[in-house]
Amino acid sequence: MRAAVLRGGRLVVDEIPEPPEPKPDQVVVEVLANGICGTDLHVVADLDGWWDATERANDLMKLFDRERDVVIGHEFAGRVLRVGAEVGTVAVGDLVYCMPLAIAPDGALHCLGFSNDYPGGFAERATVDASMVVPLPDGLRAEHATFLDPMGVGEYAVNHRARIPAGEPAVVIGTGPVGLGVVAALRRAGASTIVAVEPTQLRREAAAKVGADVTVDPGERSWTEVWAELGFVGPAYVFDTSGAPGMVPRLVEEVPMRSVITSVASGTREEPLKPSIAVKKDLTIHFAMGGSTEIYARMAEELVAGRPDVSDLVTTIGLDDVADAFVALRTPTEHVKVAVLPGA
């Protein structure tokens, strides 16, 4: 089958072996669409830095052999091609979203997109555990379903980590796909005013469409200035999805007393932070990376209902254009979300 392979630090399109045979509790999926994630960009741009952070976090299921080929991509929707004998939750032909996990016959846990042996979503087919498969509602297109990961991450960050009370204002730093997922989650949570901070006009417009009340170009104004103009003087709920170097330490300096900072980004650099500032300001700092099949199923219902409408926020490409898309997304002025269609 064809796949976009990370080989020697470069993305190349090549023929690779089929995914492993499914166990009785697994399914084989034809990948219809895979979203390019910020983590994918980090892996390609700074593999050693990403590897160091992953190793130090003891995230063993993502530590692939950097000397061997790996098919990245972990945000994918597809059509079920084959089901194991013990699978009763989905059937051949079902449209599904896959949380990218597979347990090998030897018991090893593989995270697709970070495994040398289980190809990720930049391949035409994938083998995953049936328990990690979320059936999609009728009417939800596969390329739009690639927004489920940022939607799920945003839901987890807002309602499971920050737990923002209804009626509180919030700030979102960065409105790439994950930032948009946070904005949408804040809207559902009943935030009174959502301020979105984003340097690119395209993504500021996307934030407004998804639910931001105020958008700020940080090249022109600071969010703290806008916050004060809006009449907010107390604690702030601030979500950093930008991954910009030094952003969390900077926010520790900028936020009001007793604020809650939630980082939903995965920068790979070391960043100095002075704890005494956070202590003196009585801050709460969360780091969020999470989701579940239950959350993703709920987010699928939100998407198919147009909450939010992402139909014009997704650019679709084929495998041959993957490398160029990674270059374009380093300076994201042309795309909000890019979905790769391996069969196109």
Describe this entry's structure for a reader.
The protein is an alpha/beta fold and 344 residues long. The chain has two domains: 2-146 and 310-340, Quinone Oxidoreductase, Chain A, domain 1 (Alpha-Beta Complex); 148-287, Rossmann fold (3-Layer(aba) Sandwich). The protein has eleven helices and 17 strands. The strands form four sheets. Strands 3, 4, 5, 8, 9, 16 and 17 form a seven-stranded mixed beta sheet that branches. The protein is globular, with a radius of gyration of 20 Å.
Can you tell me the number of structural domains? 2
Q: Any idea of the CATH topology of the largest domain?
A: Quinone Oxidoreductase, Chain A, domain 1
Strand residues, percent = 15-25%
CATH class of the largest domain: Alpha Beta
Structural class: alpha/beta
From the alpha carbons, calculate the radius of gyration and give it in angstroms: 20 Å
| End-to-end Cα distance | 13 Å
Multimer state? single chain
Which spans of ≥5 residues are poorly predicted at pLDDT below 50? Answer: none
Tally of DSSP β-strands: 17
- Give the CATH architecture of the largest domain: Alpha-Beta Complex
Q: Total helix count?
A: 11
Q: Please tell me the overall pLDDT.
A: 96
SSE topology string:
EEEHHEEEEEEHHEHEHEHEHEHEHEHE
- The CATH homologous superfamily of the largest domain is termed Medium-chain alcohol dehydrogenases, catalytic domain
Helix percentage range: 25-40%
* Main sheet properties: 7 strands, mixed
| Bulk shape | globular
